[in-house]
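Re: the 120-residue chain
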Amino acid sequence: MSAFFLTPAEAARCLGVSTDAVLYRVRYGQLRAIWITPRLCRVPMADVLLGSPLWPTGLPAAITAEQVAALLEVHHRTVHRLARSGVLPAHRRQGAWAFSSRQLREWAERRCDEGLNAVA
């Protein structure tokens, strides 16, 4: 899975602005971001480069924690912790976390729509 989301610092490099400028744009709705925790967000690469859809297409219906970690560019333990706490939509299947790509897409869209209020 390729990088679909950028850190604010990576988005800043692409846009030729400071990280603070990216976070300002996110806070005031000029750029979408998925707030994973109150201090951790990811900016969709498509928003920075093309204005394309928020979530990648062509994902399988069920994806693993490792695939979610690669998609969001976070450590797989972060994904497990967020699933355990109910932040990420997931369920246990044979002792492992399973994620629905449809539910994750809806979660990401909700997080973008709600902005920072989604995690505050």
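Confidence is low (pLDDT under 50) at residues 116-120.
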